[in-house]
Amino acid sequence: MKKLVFATNNPHKLAEVRALIPQWQILSLSDIGCFDDIPETELTLEGNAQLKANFVTQKYGFDCFADDTGLEVTALNGAPGVFSARYAGEKANPEDNIQKILTNLLNKKNREAQFRTVIALNLDTKTFLFEGICKGNILKEKTGVSGFGYDPIFQPQGYDSSFAQMSKEEKGAISHRGKAIRKLITFLEKE
After folding, report:
1. Phi and psi for 81 in degrees, rounded to 5?
2. Which DSSP symbol is given to 97?
3. Which residues of the chain have pLDDT under 70?
4. Element (H, E) at 48
5. Which H or E element spans position 56?
6. Is the bond preceding 156 in cis, omega lying within 30 degrees of 0?
7. What local confidence, expressed as pLDDT, does residue 83 receive?
8. Are 120 and 46 in contact (CB under 8 A)?
């Protein structure tokens, strides 16, 4: 089985990705002994994904892929975007971020949003990018208990439930990360 490092220690992301790529052994940062806090200093999702993948490849010598994801809300001019994880501040938790979005959308009619994931893959000294987008709307209140991050307030287009009301498999079939991962898988199958 081929090995590939996914530059994350987020157990939710890792579980989602491992479920989508069972034919590869997906290693986390802790699996390779990487406990560094990799700074995400770029101003784009593409830049942050490349930064993380390059850090692992250069420091540890592994083929690696990394992702960065942003929630882009139309009425907020695409915010929080690249700052999604720290939208309510550096020390904010997911609940703080959700509350800030809901507060900022309080008097807005347009609740359109999209999740966008960019994956940077370093494989055999080359870098490849894959993007996945899931369009939807921001709900007026949290619904569901599954998932993580903004999942309780994001309702994908064409569905009556939030990401947080879906099983991992249901979400993976339509999610931004799922779409980007499937592009990655299609590419890896040709390698």
Report:
1. 55, -125
2. H
3. none
4. helix 45-60
5. helix 45-60
6. no
7. 95
8. yes
d(CA 77, CA 181): 27
Q: How many whole angstroms separate alpha carbon 169 and alpha carbon 49?
A: 24
The tens digit of pLDDT for each residue in 62-110 reads 999 999 999 999 999 999 999 999 999 989 999 999 999 999 999 999 9
**C-alpha to C-alpha distance for 52 and 67, rounded to whole angstroms:** 8
What is the SS3 assignment for 156? strand
Which pair of tokens denotes residue 61? 């010598």
Q: How far is CA 92 from CA 64, 87, 98, 147, 189, in A?
A: 28, 7, 10, 18, 39
Provide the token pair at 92. 């904010």
Catalytic residue among 31, 63, 67, 68: 68
Q: Reply yes or no on whether 68 is catalytic.
A: yes
Alpha-helical segments (H) within 61-119: 94-104
| CB-count burial class (<10 Å; 0-12, 13-18, 19+) for 19 | middle
| CB-based contact 151:177 (threshold 8 Å) | no
Identify whether the C-beta of residue 74 lies closer than 8 Å to the C-beta of residue 157. no
Q: Which residues contact 153 (CB under 8 A, 6 or more apart)?
A: 98, 101, 102, 138, 139, 141, 142, 143, 162
